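Appendix B. One record, verbatim.
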Amino acid sequence: MPTDRIRRAIKQITEKPDPARLAQIADLASRASDAAETRRAPLEPIMDELEALTGFREGPRYWATFHGGGGPEEFAAVIALPLPEPIIDLDPAEIGALLAFEESVRLGDQAEYQRILQYLSACLGDAFNTDLIYWPHREMNAAELLDEVIKRREILREKGIAGLRAYERGLAEEVMASGDAPLWAQQWAEGVLARD
């Protein structure tokens, strides 16, 4: 059962912004993308206006490759409202509640889904990344995913990022040594081994 602070965080993540604000942000995103791609208008003033409105700022490369995904409307829905303040001392039950919420919206509202992924990353840092959902080293049910996040958080606390990378490298070597690892697990392992 979610704690009060998790219920408040989920409520803030799922709030719907004012439609006029959404339209304004979507328009700025479209204009920024067009300016970066075509150079028909200066990009900097558009980025300044978007940053003043939302706090969001990315450089020209981001805007030149912006098209795709959910487009300006989904982008606006994701950044229109600030995320809740990250909770860095989450207990296992709270992590489980956030992961359960993530799973419940995975195939639903994509703006909410992107916001919960961002929030999990803000709260858990390197202990959580989307590889655990999309490109895991093995199939995991909800309880196993929670255990994996908790284990990664403990490794980070005890050994830092170098310890987490060593842990991931060991997992990747196990996946590659296995003769029956699924293709997605092999792709994850190849990425980890190429990184190190």
